């Protein structure tokens, strides 16, 4: 029996992954000469910003302070490009409202830093729907490690077996599987064909306009 919905943020609540890809591509290739193709940048976009930098450049390439600066700079570029288009994915507001009315607990489990989570929640004024918010700063290791989603469940006081995750990224679906949770996939940046290996996907949706919370309980 499902008692809680755990939402990934980027690509799942807002359709912004193309803006993350552009900001990362700019930082990695134009500022840091990583020489990655656009598809390679997209494939690296999961987990914390520091984890991404280590995957691309190796351990100890940057001082922690430098990684912090690069992370903030990347999010500044992302926010300034995306802000004019900032909006929830179609049908999500009504979906959240209905879930709240039905007593389903709601949480956000994101690899984003609080700077970005605040940017979304405060500009869209939707913070009040969520009883727990787990960001990059709240976990030792991000997705595909299960820590993010297990921490959401713990903060909500709900058994992981009674949670379902909403995700857009294969590595996020993997994180949910590692946490023992099923997943609803929102096909924003990643197509259905990219999720073939995951047995914990129970549904694919383009947006929330034809769904209601009871479909996933
Ligand atoms: O876990 P979420 O909400 O999908 O966020 C993931 C993204 O968050 C962004 O802030 C990172 O810069 C991206 O690299 C990462 O992919």
TrEMBL record:
Pfam families: Hydrolase (PF00702)
Enzyme class label: isomerase
Entry EC number(s): 5.4.2.6
Keywords: Carbohydrate metabolism, Isomerase, Magnesium, Metal-binding, Phosphoprotein
Record field: catalytic activity: beta-D-glucose 1-phosphate = beta-D-glucose 6-phosphate
GO molecular function, one term: beta-phosphoglucomutase activity
Entries under InterPro entries matching the protein: B-phosphoglucomutase_hydrolase, Beta-PGM-like, HAD-like_sf, HAD-SF_hydro_IA, HAD_sf, PGP-like_dom2
Cofactors, names only: Mg(2+)
Family: Belongs to the HAD-like hydrolase superfamily. CbbY/CbbZ/Gph/YieH family.
NCBIfam families recorded: HAD-SF-IA-v1, HAD-SF-IA-v3, PGMB-YQAB-SF
Record's protein name: Beta-phosphoglucomutase
């Amino acid at each position: 029996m499902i008692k809680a919905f755990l939402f990934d943020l980027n690509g799942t609540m807002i359709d912004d992954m193309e803006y993350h890809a552009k900001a990362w591509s700019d930082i990695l290739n134009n500022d840091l000469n990583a020489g990655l193709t656009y598809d390679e940048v997209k494939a690296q976009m999961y987990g914390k910003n520091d984890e991404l930098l280590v995957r691309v450049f190796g351990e100890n390439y940057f001082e922690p302070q430098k990684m912090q600066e690069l992370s903030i700079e990347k999010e500044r570029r992302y926010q300034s490009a995306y802000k004019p288009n900032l909006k929830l994915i179609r049908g999500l507001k009504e979906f959240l409202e209905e879930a709240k009315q039905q007593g389903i607990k709601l949480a956000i489990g994101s690899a984003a830093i609080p700077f970005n989570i605040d940017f979304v929640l405060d500009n869209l004024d939707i913070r009040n729907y969520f009883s727990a918010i787990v960001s990059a700063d709240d976990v030792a290791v991000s997705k595909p490690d299960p820590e993010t989603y297990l921490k959401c469940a713990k903060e909500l006081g709900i058994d992981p077996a009674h949670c379902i995750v909403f995700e857009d990224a294969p590595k996020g679906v993997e994180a949910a599987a590692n946490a023992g949770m099923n997943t609803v996939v929102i096909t924003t940046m990643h197509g259905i064909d990219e999720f073939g290996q995951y047995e914990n996907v129970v549904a694919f949706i383009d947006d929330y306009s034809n769904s209601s919370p009871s479909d996933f309980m």
